[in-house]
Amino acid sequence: MSERPLSPAVQKLIAAYARELPERCATLRAALPQQPQPDPESLQELETEVHKLAGSSGSYGFRDLSAALRQLDRYLQDCRHGDAAWSPEQAAQLWQQVEAALPASAH
Predict the structure, then answer these.
(1) Position 92 in a domain
(2) Is residue 102 within a helix (H) or strand (E), and if so which, with residue range?
(3) Percent of the chain having pLDDT more than 70?
(4) Count of domains observed in the chain
(5) Helices 88-101 and 63-80: crossing angle, nearest 10°?
(6) In sequence order, which ranges of 5-105 are alpha helices (DSSP H)?
(7) Residue 11: CB partners within 8 Å, gap ≥ 6?
(8) pTM for the model
(9) d(Cα 94, Cα 101) in Å, to the nearest integer?
(10) CA distance readout (Å), 85 to 24, 26, 65, 72
(11) How many other CB atoms sit within 10 Å of the CB of residue 6?
């Protein structure tokens, strides 16, 4: 089954979303805790924002970005629930995957 071409209006929405990605990602990157024991409330807020961006990026067709953000989302959730220990290094590695998955139009 072949996909129908996107209408110009939808293409415009996707392009606008892609233009916003660098700023949204920079905000999330800046919010990644650097201390060994981050505040659980901060992790919750970050997890919520990462989760929202993972969902919206998938909805706009940026599947690789969505998958990378979902990995970070799961890690944040595991840390918050005590199923994983917080590591700024691990978070940075996961963030590198997010950056690598950003569409070329968002760089």
Answers:
(1) yes
(2) none
(3) 95
(4) 1
(5) 160
(6) 8-31, 40-59, 63-80, 88-101
(7) none
(8) 0.90
(9) 11
(10) 26, 24, 24, 14
(11) 12
Amino acid present at 102? L
Rounded to an integer, what is the distance from CA 77 to the centroid of its chain?
A: 14
Residue 98 belongs to domain with CATH number = 1.20.120
Spatial neighbors of 40 by CB under 8 A, at least 6 apart, are: 80
Q: Residues near 46 by Cβ (< 8 Å), separated by ≥ 6?
A: 28, 31, 32, 33, 76
Residue 3 lies in a domain: no
How does pLDDT run across 47-81, given as a tens digit for each residue?
Answer: 999 999 999 999 999 999 999 999 999 999 999 99
Separation between Cα atoms, residue 8 and residue 11, nearest integer Å: 5
The range of the structural domain enclosing residue 19 comes to 8-106
